[in-house]
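Progress narrative, work stream C.
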Amino acid sequence: MSNPESVEASEPDETGRPVGAIVWNVGSVAERLGISPSTLRTWERRYGVGPTHRTTGGHRRYTETDIHRVTLVQALISRGAPPMEAARVAQAVAADGLEAALLEASIDDHGADLDHGQIIDGIIRAARDYEPDRVGALVGGALRRDGVNGAWSGVIAPALIRIGEEWSNGRLGIEVEHIASEVIVGELRAYTRAAGRLDSSGPTIVLASAESDLHSMPLIALEAGLAEAGLACHVLGAQFPAKALASMTANLRPTIVFVWASLPREEDDDMWKVVTAMVPPTTAILGGPGWPQRPDARGHATISVSLESTVARITSLVG
């Protein structure tokens, strides 16, 4: 962690703290609180919550009181408060009341008392305001509170659908979708890592998106759901070539191959031919709206309609 700076005795503290108190630059505060320096600068510029001490050279520095106030803003936003309202509340708290206010705000863990609609609204506001830390706090809180299946169906998928609709209607820029998507992927991967080291010596599970399909988030969500169930898997990502999947399947003989397709796939499509030709011990499971809906053409492949049903199907197949 970056080192704080000690205030010289000749420099009075604007917040009334004792001369000689420790002060921090923006990078140190960002590292300490786990939020980005750009977010801290945004809060200072837009809402007036920021450093109050100035060095003899004119550089602004955070005192401990400033950090407590910023932490309160962070906690209130994580509970779903709009940033301007969170800043207004934090600014109204006297310095000697900040610790009590922080304790009260911290009782709730990132939106634990919010319903799904409120969390979705908060995610969209945060992405629109270019505040990825806020998006991450809300998504991470939903994952911890509701688990992968609950957070995906109740918060993540609806939020992404809403953002897509508002982008189509011209109310949001494409950058908002990218911010939200990148943060959600990061939170899902963090949730998977938090599951700890998984046993990879059991049944082999392979997850991929069909070639030319750019979507990999469903795979990352499925990886998190399987990790929650104690299952490790190989995630091959987006646009995985059909020939490579056929070769890997022949060599590895996995228990499960899951392939996602959001774009329409015809029955003469190479990936369709590969997955429907798979034979035991491999079971192919297809996800996404792109696959043909002909039950008699699936061979050994079955189509899964939701994250929860896919996790349940895989869990039952691997015993």
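Work stream C, second folded protein:
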Amino acid sequence: MSAILDILASASFWAAAIRIATPLMFGVLGALICERAGVLNLGIEGIFTAGAMAGWLAVHLGTDLWTGVLIAALTGALFGLVLALLTVPLGLSQHVTGIGVTLLATSLAYFTYRVVLPTASTPPRIQPFGPVRVPVLSDLPFIGQALFSQTALTFLALALFALVAFVLYRTPLGLAIRAAGENPAAVEAQGLDVHLVRIGAVVAGSAIMALGGAFLTMSAFNAFFFEMAGGRGWICIALTVFASWRPGKALLGAILFGAFDAFQLRLQHEVAGAVPSQVFLMLPYLLSIAALCLVARRADYPKALMIPYVKGQR
């Protein structure tokens, strides 16, 4: 018990938790935007992979890191546009189309890697984002090490949460996005195009999702590896439900999962092989399932989620 308390009271533990949570922050925020507009984006796992590969490859070929981030976002937006065009105006199944986009994006990422680097036995390394020390704040006890010594992409994720929360709840655009997922007929009654609102939300959400993949190759690691998304996209779908489609709770859920993951890594070290490592690897997922079970029945989901809208329909 004392070892567990020591872990939880460590600033380095919370620094690791926030670092692990960062790709989930991008993913859950992107999923939230899509679902608030009424579209379930199951292409997230593939978009993660495509964003990771595109950003890393751009930097490897000579661009700077921030250009790589932009290219990753544009890659995610492109796959989001494909999904949106198939599910919004055509009304195809969002489940099937999303899984199809995941398979397409993942396969294209792997294919591109093999075409560009046909003889590479190991992925080439790039110089990733380094920790950014915020003057004064980084020197604060505990919180300085835990929060203010992260990379620039972590600060970008936190800034995007604040921006999206403001847009959703304080602007006419945010009202239109939320109404498109709750009562699309009311959106059309105001003279707005429901399809354009939904397509725009899916494209923007997918661009943000891809930044989660870019974080993996350009901040957490310094190369692209197959299967590096590691199911994070599916975790983000669950976290969106856990958060009841609210940005603040989504941020909390991502950090909690990051803390679970960081905790199991340190717990493995403490027990030193006395318990099979697979038990600890599944611990954060079990805790996430438990948390999801507790809140899913009370979740206030968007009423028009996954329901295609036909113009003129009442």
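The CA atoms of residues 11 and 141 lie 9 Å apart. No further action is required on this item.
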